[in-house]
Amino acid sequence: MVADALIYHPGVSHYLKFVATTVGRDKLLRTLQYFARFYSWYLLRTNRPQTSIAPWDAVKKQFGLVRKVLRAGKNVEHFRAAAVAADNKTMDPVLRYTAVGRQLGYAGYLTMDLATLLDATGIRKSESAKRFQREAFRFWAMGISCSVVAQLYTLYQLRKREARVDRKEGEGVLESKRIAMERTASRLQLTSDLCDITVPLSGLNWVGFDDGFVGLTGTLSSLIGVYLQWKKTA
After folding, report:
1. What separation in angstroms does the CA of 201 have from each of 56, 112, 188, 226?
2. What angle do CA 162, 164, 168 make, to 5 degrees?
3. Distance (Å, rounded) from C-alpha 200 to C-alpha 205?
4. With b meaning 16 or more CB within 10 Å and e meaning fewer, what string describes 124-139?
5. C-alpha–C-alpha distance, residues 188 and 223, integer Å
6. Could you tell me where the beta strands, DSSP code E, fall in 54-125?
7. DSSP codes, 46-68
8. Is the CB of residue 28 less than 8 Å from the CB of residue 225?
9. 202-227: per-residue pLDDT in tens?
10. Angle of helix 10-19 relative to helix 22-45, nearest 10 degrees?
11. Predicted confidence (pLDDT) at residue 200 exceeds the cutoff of 60
12. Can you tell me whether residue 162 is helix, strand or coil?
């Protein structure tokens, strides 16, 4: 009876839906990868023995490699999304241009990242891998920057919409609730973007973030991704 209750529990069904998605599995792996990045840095800073640090370094590297393999070919999805956004003439111009920039940035990042796959897996070493990785970081930074601009603009527009709402009317109350939900979603995305941008900025040495800081911000953005994907598969 207890086993049946666990097997058929709605939470188990939700979990199965979550892990059945590529995004769900990627977010879980990403959370572990960036936490391992932070924790291996922490162990190093606290002078722990190499035997304690090595397993976390392995988690960071191996999970990163698994994620690189899983996202191979995903660049096509973002090229298509950029084309769809460019063709959407009804969208707010600022949001349309930032959407195109974001999708092209992610597409460029994934294309350059794909170019490093054979080197990363050890199948075929390439002297160009480091250059491709740097270009990948540049595209990623561009994509995230466009997303940050879009979220800031969205929050500004929501503030303007809210100022016009008459909460004394029934429709105004509903509109106020819709604005609150959209604001929460936008703030979550903005927080995730600001956390994520530390990775390419650090990788390009544009900002001197250490592995501890990047690991923590990466873990936070990954947890936000897990939460959003969990809600989406509910």
Report:
1. 23, 16, 20, 23
2. 90
3. 8
4. eeeeebeebbebbbbb
5. 11
6. none
7. TT--HHHHHHHHHHHHHHHHHHH
8. no
9. 999 999 999 999 999 999 999 999 99
10. 80
11. yes
12. helix
Please give the single-letter amino acid code of residue 42.
Y
User: Hunting for tokens 């601009």 — which residue is that?
Assistant: 149
As a residue count, the chain comes to: 234
- CA-based Rg of the chain, rounded to a whole angstrom? 21
Structure tokens at 166: 């008459």
Report d(CA 120, CA 205) in Å as an integer.
21
Express as a percent the part of the chain with pLDDT over 70.
Answer: 96
State the average pLDDT for the chain: 93
Kindly report, residue by residue over 127-175, the tens digit of the pLDDT.
999 999 999 999 999 999 999 999 999 999 999 999 888 777 777 888 8
- Other C-beta atoms closer than 10 Å to the C-beta of 178 total 13
With 0.85 as the threshold, say if the pTM is over it: yes
pLDDT at 64: 96
CB neighbours of 92 closer than 8 A, spacing ≥ 6? 157
CA distances from 73 to 69, 109, 126, 203 (A): 9, 12, 20, 22
* Degrees to nearest 5, angle at CA 102 with 219 and 80: 115
The pLDDT value recorded for residue 167 is: 75
